């Protein structure tokens, strides 16, 4: 009877069945574990205890377990295996129920993928994006931030709407614990890496003579890719970086193969749909007199009305951080009196200046000065906003759980990182120009 059912199935039914089977396979944690073992990363068998342990441990609200273990050959670390209601941490408490030791047999891949995973974290954004704006091309830097923020908001919100769990451990080795309370679908690391890499490529090629009226007056040169060779070289570089970051999410055990594929596809689809209107979007955001007010209101409302979470995780805070940076960037470049109708006098494409020790020194000075100002801004904005919110709501904002409340977390994150975005785009360039760097 079963065979008769298969024979009578329509081609469409067979396609649907095969697609469902494929999706189930791509979502299987065993596939992630196989990739980890292929790369030399595996759970250490019980009973082995002769080595060195490193690792990350999940925070605990009431107690902080810091039990360290020793284990076998290579690098042995603790791997948080968290069990909690509905597959996630509940009530904001990160409880370490069990720990698993793991073994690294390929040091090169271990450090390569850990480095690649860091490219999707705050330390990368707070260095790469400002460096692009200050030292390469502020027009491209602004476009990167806007595209990154929009696509990341949809990606982060999708996690808390779909509520698909991350791969379980065992069989997967988990090298990170901070975001383990978050849901997994889609991979926002894959989204960010793909969006930033290809926006940097396509956004640069779009800066040509016919779009010069949308270019900012202080840009000294345009790195226009006219050569097909250079374009494909850039394409391969973008493909390599986005693939490396995506694979790092499998190596660290934080996503299934399906999570990563969907993340990359979401970013590519977003770029393909919005690419034709990038120029008009830039004009509106950078030149309309009501643009600063509009971006602040929309950004704050989007952050405050983030999809409701059934347990606390860092997704809302991270999303507010990203939106805040984008809002501050848009306000900064808009208020910074940028003349969008100014066209450089030289003929396009403008030549790329030769690399010299003096130029590298100036860019280093500009970058270090900017980072110092951003750190000072972050400290002041965070301190003042928390004190103000604490007084307003009559609570102690030093309490970690208080900071997780919606009415505290979103405003202070939004104010802090909007200030950072504004200082990075409006204050730092003017100060560097005043100092002659």
TrEMBL record:
It comes from the Eukaryota. Residues 139-275 form the Phosphatidic acid phosphatase type 2/haloperoxidase domain. SMART domains: acidPPc. Residues 50-64 have a biased composition (Polar residues). The chain crosses the membrane at residues 108-128, 140-162, 229-250, 257-278, 290-307, 319-340, 360-381. GO terms for biological process: sphingosine metabolic process. One of its GO terms (molecular function) is sphingosine-1-phosphate phosphatase activity. Pfam families: PAP2. Residues 50-87 are annotated as: Disordered. Keywords: Membrane, Transmembrane, Transmembrane helix. The keyword Transmembrane applies. GO terms for cellular component: endoplasmic reticulum membrane. PANTHER family: SPHINGOSINE-1-PHOSPHATE PHOSPHATASE 2 (PTHR14969:SF14), SPHINGOSINE-1-PHOSPHATE PHOSPHOHYDROLASE (PTHR14969). This is Phosphatidic acid phosphatase type 2/haloperoxidase domain-containing protein. The lineage of its organism: Eukaryota, Metazoa, Chordata, Craniata, Vertebrata.
């Amino acid at each position: 009877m079963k065979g008769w059912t298969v024979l009578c199935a329509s081609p469409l039914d067979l396609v649907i069945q095969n697609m469902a089977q494929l999706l189930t396979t791509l979502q299987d944690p065993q596939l992630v574990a196989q990739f980890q073992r292929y790369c030399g990363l595996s759970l250490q068998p019980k009973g082995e205890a002769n080595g060195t342990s490193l690792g990350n441990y999940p925070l605990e609200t009431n107690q902080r377990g810091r039990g360290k273990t020793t284990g076998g050959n290579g690098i042995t670390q603790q791997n948080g295996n968290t069990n909690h209601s509905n597959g996630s941490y509940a009530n904001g408490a990160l409880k370490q129920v069990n720990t698993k030791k793991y073994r690294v047999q390929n040091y090169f891949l271990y450090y390569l993928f850990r480095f690649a995973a860091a490219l999707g974290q705050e330390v990368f954004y707070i260095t790469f994006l400002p460096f692009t704006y200050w030292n390469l091309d502020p027009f491209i830097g602004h476009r990167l931030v806007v595209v990154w923020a929009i696509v990341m908001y949809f990606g982060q919100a999708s996690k808390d709407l779909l509520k698909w769990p991350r791969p379980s451990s065992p069989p997967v080795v988990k090298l990170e614990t901070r975001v383990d309370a978050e849901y997994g679908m889609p991979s926002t690391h894959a989204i960010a890496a793909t969006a930033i890499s290809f926006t940097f490529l396509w956004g640069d090629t779009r800066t040509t003579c016919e779009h010069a009226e949308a270019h900012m007056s202080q840009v000294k040169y345009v790195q226009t890719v006219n050569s097909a060779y250079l374009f494909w070289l850039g394409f391969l570089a973008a493909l390599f970086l986005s693939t490396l970051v995506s694979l790092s999410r499998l190596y660290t055990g934080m996503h299934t193969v399906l999570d990563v594929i969907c993340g990359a596809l979401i970013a590519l689809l977003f770029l393909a749909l919005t690419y034709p209107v990038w120029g008009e979007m830039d004009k509106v955001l950078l030149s309309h007199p009501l643009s600063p007010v509009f971006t602040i209101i929309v950004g704050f409302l989007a952050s405050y009305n983030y999809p409701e979470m059934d347990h606390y995780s860092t997704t809302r805070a991270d999303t507010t951080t990203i939106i805040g940076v984008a809002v501050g960037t848009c306000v900064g470049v808009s208020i910074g009196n940028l003349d969008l109708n100014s066209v450089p006098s030289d003929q396009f494409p403008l030549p790329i200046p030769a690399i010299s020790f003096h130029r590298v020194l100036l860019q280093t000075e500009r970058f270090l000065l900017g980072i110092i100002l951003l750190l000072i801004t972050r400290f002041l904005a965070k301190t003042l906003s928390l004190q103000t919110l604490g007084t307003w709501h009559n609570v102690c904002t030093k309490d970690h759980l208080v900071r997780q409340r919606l009415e505290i977390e979103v405003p202070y994150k939004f104010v802090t990182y909007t200030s950072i975005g504004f200082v990075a785009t409006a204050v730092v360039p003017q100060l560097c120009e005043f100092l002659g760097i």
